[in-house]
């Protein structure tokens, strides 16, 4: 947890721990772990399955399985990865509960309109501002999850009491086209705007993909229109590391886990150079943006350092995911199997990551 007990190290001296088991420990043992799930529609289920595998051997001091919010200091997600960040970090849900909620949400959210199954009609619908899916089921679905967690359906994203786990989702300002962070905490830094909103509004903002969901306006007196954060950062690894340095300047990152949803090659479609073409090109780029962001970070000075120190882990399934579109919730069982196959095929990397996570519990 982010509270400090014992030791003489200052907050600037100790390594930034973006993952902890939520029990007091010697500050010299603190290590950091950040979690950043990619966007990817229903394929976000794979990130939860991989996280479940990583957490399976972990236990706290009483031998209980830890909850992610007790382990992480910072979780940042984009699009449906933002929904996962909210469930794990803001709502303090277990991974198992989040998996079931995610399956339910996917079936509710991606209930297609009659014309949404065809790419041509979907493009025409987007041009006419008729979106393939309604944003209302996202609102209702998230509100149902909130009520099951014993929270008000319009509870604020901002947590009243400071949590050991800070959480944000990214969304794109439709006017400036800049990525903005909707946070569960206040960050009093120049250029960092606080957007008062509810949990469901944040979920809508981060997942408002063009052609799929209508944009959302947030704010009372001054309204800001947001669209899907995946347009800028489908893989939020850069946003998460930058935010960590803003929150805890001078503290080191001990470990970073980035969970992807694979790379989908979009079907080709010949269209004229119009807004339709721009929208299609934008959506196609989102499928490769996540992997490119991983490569950019891996090749950066910070990324190389974390990689060389075995503190940066990137997991993203490939086999089978190229045939799954972002709205294919009917293929949930197949995605679970694909994700578990991926874990088995990369068991050495997962075991090493598990060992790093487990080492953080030493002395807890």
UniProtKB/TrEMBL annotation:
Q: Does the keyword Phosphoprotein apply?
A: no
GO MF terms here are: calcium-independent phospholipase A2 activity
Q: Which UniProt keywords apply?
A: Hydrolase, Lipid degradation, Lipid metabolism
Kindly provide the name given to this protein in its UniProt entry.
Answer: PNPLA domain-containing protein
* Record lineage: Eukaryota, Fungi, Dikarya, Ascomycota, Pezizomycotina
* Sequence motif: GXGXXG, positions: 39-44
UniProt short sequence motif GXSXG, positions renumbered to this chain: 77-81
- Origin organism is Cladophialophora psammophila CBS 110553
| GO BP, one annotated term | lipid catabolic process
Pfam families per the UniProt record, alphabetical: Patatin
Please report the stretch or stretches of sequence annotated as the PNPLA domain: 35-241
Question: Does the record carry Mitochondrion as a key word?
Answer: no
The positions flagged as active site in the entry are: 79, 228
Q: Which GO terms describe its cellular component?
A: membrane
